[in-house]
């Protein structure tokens, strides 16, 4: 392959950045598919753009090729994910690019799907198309963390959302917790819900708070077009309820379709209610890894956990959390209030280390994003 000039490398990064911008338009809608954008360039001019909207509909490359028409012949296609080489809901995008006569394809990253995994790029190269991969790869991977983790590890990406006071408390001893944070933070949480495949909670939260965990259009804080996209697909609401303690008349069930994950046989408890998924358990507690594996098997890419200290703490202790999003309010709740996580630790050295990846103001509150660091020796 010919060496790449510095000018060409700069141009490749420029157009890939635009393709990633397009891919982000699918933030709320593509599940279980990845978010993908495509830009087609000829003689320094963008002649076609596209992004994948939702599963079953044309992929980003198809939209861009339709916009480019006959001008696509000899052009360069920039795609945020390796073009697919297999028949799924739609024909292979690699074939569409070959048939259109493009001269060069630049991909941000290889597709982690075992059905593709390099074969799309190989097919393009065998057709005489110049291929380059790895342009802005870290940005592309960040956009599809859930899809990548599901394909590579058989588990969804787990994001735990928490809200606390400055003294690390989440609710008063009585259980009172509305509202620790302000409206800007709550709008941010609504957007996190909308982009998740699943919003997951536990029986304690549903029983204590009457939680519904729905996405509410009026609170998203998005423009009209993006709000319409976000509301066109509702995340699946999942309840972890090992002993089936939550009654059918709970607000959670009245709010719409839901899935209950339990470790006991439902029998006739939910004769006309939600779907129940039975997984292994220990002493009435759901095996959380088994629950996540089962969700991944259903095509779930991203799980947003909104739960109390028991479930959030259990996920943390079992190493099942990929990211924490913690909203911090400028107030104290006092020593009798409830802790952020139920995670007894004896020594300072036992405390898990987190890497803070972002801190920013959200209205009058702060949003801290952190990821668990590998344990020593791992």
Explain briefly what this protein structure is.
The protein is built from twelve helices and 18 strands. The protein has helices at residues 6-23, 60-68, 93-100, 119-126, 137-143, 145-153, 183-195, 203-209, 224-231, 251-254, 288-297, 309-317, and strands at residues 37-42, 45-51, 76-79, 104-107, 130-133, 157-165, 169-171, 198-202, 236-240, 258-262, 275-278, 281-282, 285-286, 302-305, 323-329, 338-339, 354-362, 365-372.
Question: In percent, how helical is the residue content?
Answer: 25-40%
H/E series, N to C? HEEHEHEHEHHEEHEHHEHEEEEHEHEEEE
The total strand number stands at: 18
Strand order of the largest sheet: 11-10-9-8-14-6-15-18-17
EC number: 1.1.1.193, 3.5.4.26
Protein name: Bifunctional diaminohydroxyphosphoribosylaminopyrimidine deaminase/5-amino-6-(5-phosphoribosylamino)uracil reductase RibD
Keywords: Hydrolase, Oxidoreductase
Organism: Pseudomonas imrae
Description:
- The chain is built from twelve helices and 18 strands.
- The protein has 378 residues and is an alpha/beta fold.
- A nine-stranded mixed β-sheet has the order 11-10-9-8-14-6-15-18-17. A five-stranded mixed β-sheet has the order 2-1-3-4-5, with helices on both faces. Strands 7-16 form a two-stranded antiparallel ribbon.
- Helix 3 runs parallel beside helix 4.
- Keywords: Hydrolase, Oxidoreductase.
């Amino acid at each position: 392959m010919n060496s790449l000039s510095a000018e060409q490398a700069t141009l490749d990064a420029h157009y890939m950045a635009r393709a990633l911008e397009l891919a982000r338009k699918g933030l709320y809608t593509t599940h279980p598919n990845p978010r993908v954008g495509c830009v087609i360039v000829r003689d320094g001019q963008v002649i076609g753009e596209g992004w994948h909207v939702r599963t079953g509909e044309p992929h980003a490359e198809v939209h861009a090729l339709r916009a480019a028409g006959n001008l696509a012949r000899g052009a360069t296609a920039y795609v945020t994910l390796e073009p697919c080489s297999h028949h799924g809901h739609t024909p292979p995008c690699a074939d569409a690019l070959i048939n259109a006569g493009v001269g060069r394809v630049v991909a941000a990253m290889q597709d982690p799907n075992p059905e593709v995994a390099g074969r799309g790029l190989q097919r393009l190269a065998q057709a005489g198309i110049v291929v380059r991969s790895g342009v802005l790869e870290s940005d592309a991977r960040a956009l599809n963390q859930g899809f990548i983790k599901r394909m590579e590890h058989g588990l969804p990406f787990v994001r735990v959302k928490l809200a606390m006071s400055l003294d690390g408390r989440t609710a008063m001893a009585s259980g009172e917790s509305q509202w620790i944070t302000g409206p800007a933070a709550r709008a941010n949480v609504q957007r996190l819900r909308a982009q998740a495949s699943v919003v997951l909670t536990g029986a304690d939260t549903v029983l204590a708070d009457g939680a519904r965990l729905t996405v509410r259009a009026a609170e998203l804080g998005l423009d009209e077009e993006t709000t319409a996209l976000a509301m066109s697909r509702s995340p699946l609401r999942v309840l972890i309820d090992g002993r089936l303690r939550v009654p059918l008349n709970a607000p959670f069930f009245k709010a719409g379709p839901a899935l209950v994950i339990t470790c006991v046989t439902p029998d006739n408890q939910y004769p006309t209610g939600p779907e129940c998924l039975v997984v292994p358990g220990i002493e009435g507690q759901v095996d959380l890894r088994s629950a996540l594996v089962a969700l991944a098997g259903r095509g779930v890419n991203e799980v947003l956990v909104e739960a109390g200290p028991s479930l959030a703490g259990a996920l943390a202790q079992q190493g099942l959390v990929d990211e924490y999003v913690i909203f911090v309010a400028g107030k104290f709740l006092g020593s009798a209030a409830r802790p952020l996580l139920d995670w007894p630790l004896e020594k300072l050295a036992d405390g898990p280390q987190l890497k803070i990846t972002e801190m920013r103001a959200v209205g009058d509150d702060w949003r801290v994003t952190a990821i668990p660091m590998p344990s020593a020796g791992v």
